[in-house]
Amino acid sequence: MRNARPDINESTVERRTDNATGTTMGQAIRRVLCVATVVAWATSADAQAIRGTVLQADSSSRAPGVIVVASDERGQVVARTLSTDVGDFDLQLPGAGKYTVRLLRVGFRPTAVPVFEVPASGTQGLRLVLGTETVVLSAVTVRTENVCGSTEDTGRVLAQIWEEARKALTATELSTGSRVLDVEWQAFQFLMDRAGNRSRDQYVLPHRGATERPFVSVSADSLLRDGYVVTDGNDLVYRAPDAAALLSDEFAATHCFRVEPPAGGRSQWVGVAFRPTPARDRMREIMGTVWLDRATAELRLLEFAYTNLPPEAGDAGIGGYVEYVRLATGHWLVARWAIRTPHMVVRTVGGSAIPGGGRVDRVALAAVGVTGGELLSVRRASDSLYLADASLVATEGSAVVTPARPSACGAAYRPGATVRGKVTNASLPAEGAVVSTTWRVVGASADVTLSTVTDRRGEFTIPCVARGVPLTIAASLGDLRGAPSAVGPISGGALAVDIQLGPVPPR
User: Fold this and answer.
1) Residues 271 and 378 in one domain
2) Is the domain of 253 the same as that of 165?
3) SS3 label, residue 249
4) Rounded Cα–Cα distance for residues 359 and 350 (Å)
5) Which of 86, 42, 22 is CA-nearest to residue 279?
6) Which of 123, 244, 280, 483 has the most CB atoms around it within 10 Å of its CB?
7) Is residue 408 assigned to a domain?
8) Cβ atoms of 303 and 336 closer than 8 Å
9) 121-139: pLDDT as tens digits
10) Contact 164/106 with Cβ under 8 angstroms?
11) pLDDT for 233-287, tens place per residue?
12) Phi/psi of residue 26, each to 5°?
């Protein structure tokens, strides 16, 4: 994974570049349940589960895209799902006992179901009716901010805004893996010089299939321990948060939050700004804002920047963004995303500028790498649910990336080979491991890395791999690593590789 990563299938949100050089939200945010619901159930002879239908307030219209959450007697969430396009849901429970169900949807107060008991053998069939009390996100002005704290009034507004953002992020997570949607999107990669000119080294990779994450972050534990920019050999790895990372307890415990008034052309928006807690001031972290539509409470945009970067990175806009879209089916998807990372070089400076006429090495910003992607279309059977409003992949500064619409693997390195294999940990399939393959394109100024995530069987497939050049293949899962292995040029159409994970050797 060197410098840039145009990703196919699921991919880690990481970018690599040459290495030249008070009160938290977890304490402040509280959920409030307010509206009861009509419940009816029957018992069948299946395993413990909750199945049923979510209805609108008229008790007859089906309600798609509603988050259904089941909690045990201790208040811990044990299962959650998203109602289908016809309002149906299926929650698998860990066992018999007393449970509470909540219904969450953006723009409305949560609907609470009274506690009910699930028998040792049986399936609860529920008919749930949504409440109608809406959420209004007030316009706010923030004058002062305590160190990682807020006034009581501001804290209530903050909690309300963040709860709406959490609903949309949760729905984004639950929408992943939906087999009823057919999505088309493109990943891209390119370099920009300091003047903002895009290099000729551009890669556009198409993808089409069932709903998947366009990217996936490393684990919340890893982000907590190592931060968002880590050193790996001669590389710096830039990480970014996905929905799961933003929803994690670790993120809430390590960031301060405040209400962010709108700026520029976002007069109808309101945001939750976040920054690292004082205890993490010296770590390479992220700060940014989650933006919502004030009228509908719908999540619009996540913007973030990296902290404690080398001063040579200057004002190059190092960071990223994620835009979200809600479909008519209730599914939430990532509409487009991008991450910008610095490419640093060491230059030797001499002459009269150096006292004594000597020579000295200085670190300088050579270019900015941009990797991202855009959702192009979403279909369900013959119905079109989403179509990008412009024929472009992304806009970065003044440069527009025009989709090449290449077949298979893109014009930059067509035709491509496919790398397949299996990742194991102690002889067991390793689900969720990140597998990457890296190579250097002849004449290009940066390496190309493609990555994916293993499925439940520990298996992976990486298409569009270059033929005729040496490859490096590596895998990771939390603190476990599969030692990078050099592979000779692929002459045929496929390569099989199996990887065994193990602990990271001490340095």
Assistant:
1) yes
2) yes
3) helix
4) 4
5) 22
6) 123
7) no
8) no
9) 666 678 888 887 766 555 4
10) yes
11) 667 788 888 888 888 888 888 888 888 888 777 888 888 889 998 888 889 999 9
12) -60, -25
User: Do residues 268 and 192 both lie within one domain?
Assistant: yes
The alpha carbon of residue 455 and the mean position of all alpha carbons in its chain are separated, in whole angstroms, by 18
Whether residues 303 and 316 fall in one domain: yes
**Is 359 within the bounds of a domain?**
no
Q: How many CA atoms are closer than 13 Å to the CA of 464, on its beta-carbon side? A: 25
| Gap between the Cα atoms of 356 and 353, Å rounded | 9
Based on the domain organization, do 69 and 187 belong to the same domain? no
**Three-class SS state of 390:** coil
- Residue 52 sits in a domain whose CATH number is 2.60.40.10
Q: How do residues 172-210 score in pLDDT, each as one tens digit?
A: 777 776 667 788 888 887 787 777 777 655 667 777 766
C-alpha to C-alpha distance for 461 and 482, rounded to whole angstroms: 16
Q: How high is the pLDDT of residue 446? A: 57
What is the pLDDT, as a whole number, of residue 412? 36
Residue span of the structural domain in which 505 resides: 413-507
Q: Is 432 left (phi over 0), alpha (psi -120 to 50) or beta?
A: left
- Regarding whether 484 and 458 lie in a shared domain, the answer is yes
- In this structure, what are the phi and psi dihedrals at residue 432, rounded to the nearest 5 degrees? 85, 10
What average pLDDT is seen over the chain? 73
Chain Cα centroid distance, residue 18:
24
Query: Is residue 172 located within the same domain as residue 296?
Result: yes
What pLDDT digit, counting tens, does each position of 47-63 carry?
A: 477 888 999 888 888 88
Number of domains the chain contains = 3
pTM (2 decimals)?
Answer: 0.64
- Boundary (domain end) residue, out of 88, 110, 129: 129
DSSP, res 244 = H
